[in-house]
Amino acid sequence: MKVAFPVKGNNGLESIMDEHFGVAENFLIVDLETRKLExxxxxxxTEEGSKCKAGIFEEKDLVNAVVTNCMGDGSQRSLMASxxxxxQARENTVRKNLELFEKDELKLFHIFDFCxxxxxxxxxGCGHHH
Length: 130
Description:
The chain is α/β, with parallel strands linked by helices. The chain has a single domain, classed as Dinitrogenase iron-molybdenum cofactor biosynthesis domain (Nucleotidyltransferase, domain 5). The protein has two helices and six strands; from the N terminus they run E-E-E-E-E-H-E-H. The chain has helices spanning about 75-80, 95-100; strands at about 1-10, 15, 25-30, 35-40, 65-70, 85-90. Strands 1, 2, 3, 4, 5 and 6 form a six-stranded mixed beta sheet that branches. Helix 1 (about 75-80) links the parallel strand 5 (about 65-70) and strand 6 (about 85-90). The chain starts with a strand and ends in a 28-residue tail after the last helix.
C-alpha cells in the first residue's frame, strides 16, 4: 500500500504537511511495505486552470490513500473515482500522520470537510477561495 502526503520541501518523513492538497508543490509517497519514500512534483501546478483538480497520480503510481489537511471538491471527486481514499491529517509532519494512519487513528474525509463547503478558517475550511 502507498500513501501520499502533500508536503512543503523535502525532508523525508520530517517534511511539513502542506495546508492544501491541490496547490502543494510536492507529494511524498510512502510505500508501507518497503518503507521506500518517493518525492513527486505536483504536475498540475504547471497546467493552466487545474490547480484544484487531482489528476496528479497515475494508475502506475499505485497510490491507495492520501493524508491531507484540506482539499477541494474537485480533488476529492477525482481521487474517489480512482478508488483512492482520503484521510484527514491531524499533525504537522508526515511522520506523525503516518504513525496515526498506521494505527488506524485518522478519519476519512467526509464531503462536508472539504474546502469548497467551508469559506474560511473560522468555519473549518482552509481559508482560500476556489
